[in-house]
Amino acid sequence: MRTIRAKTTCPACGFVNTAQTNYSDDSPGDGDYAICLQCSFVAIYAVSGEQISVRRPTADEEREIGENPEVQRMLRAIDRLDIPGRSLNALRNAGKRN
Ligand SMILES: [Zn+2]
User: Fold this and answer.
1) How many folded domains does the chain comprise?
2) How far is the CA of 26 from the centre of ligand 1 (A)?
3) Residue 43 C-alpha to ligand 1 middle, in angstroms?
4) What is the CA(10)–ligand 1 centre distance, in A?
5) Could you tell me the distance, in angstroms and rounded to a whole number, from the CA of residue 53 to the centre of ligand 1?
6) Which of 2-6, 43-47, 78-82 tops mean pLDDT?
7) How far does Cα 77 stand from its chain's mean position?
8) How far is the CA of 34 from the centre of ligand 1 (A)?
9) Residue 61 three-state SS
10) What is d(CA 59, CA 43) in angstroms, rounded to the nearest whole number?
11) Per-residue model confidence as pLDDT tens digits over 65-91
């Protein structure tokens, strides 16, 4: 795992995530999935040079996210984490992901 410091704003809840942790030892790559720890929304990394941001997934990407067992396992694990202030956002966005 590798964690880098980069600010990204969740497109679903607006929370500013200040660090990005990747499963592998690589930095997040363009098109990788980005899961918001506040609301569990699955966004897509948009990486250009040193610039890292996240965007909403396209319809095709949403379908892929919904069918990806690894992402679904990660979401269940994140849902079990006790993150202060998250419960309201998680409830608000529960219907926005498949
Ligand atoms: Zn969020």
Assistant:
1) 1
2) 23
3) 9
4) 5
5) 13
6) 43-47
7) 13
8) 10
9) helix
10) 12
11) 999 999 999 899 888 888 777 755 555
d(Cα 27, Cα 47) in Å, to the nearest integer?
10
CA of 50 to the centre of ligand 1 (A): 22
The average pLDDT across 5-28 equals: 85
Q: What is the distance in A from the centroid of ligand 1 to the CA of 92?
A: 10
Amino acid at 37: L
DSSP single-letter state for residue 95: G
**Token representation of residue 77:** 């694990």
Structural domain includes residue 36 = yes
User: Do the domain assignments include residue 63?
Assistant: yes
Per the CB < 8 A criterion, the answer to whether 24 and 2 are in contact is yes
42 CA to centre of ligand 1 in angstroms? 8
* Token representation of residue 68: 């990806």
Full residue range of the structural domain in which residue 21 is found: 2-92
Residue 49 CA to ligand 1 centre (angstroms): 24
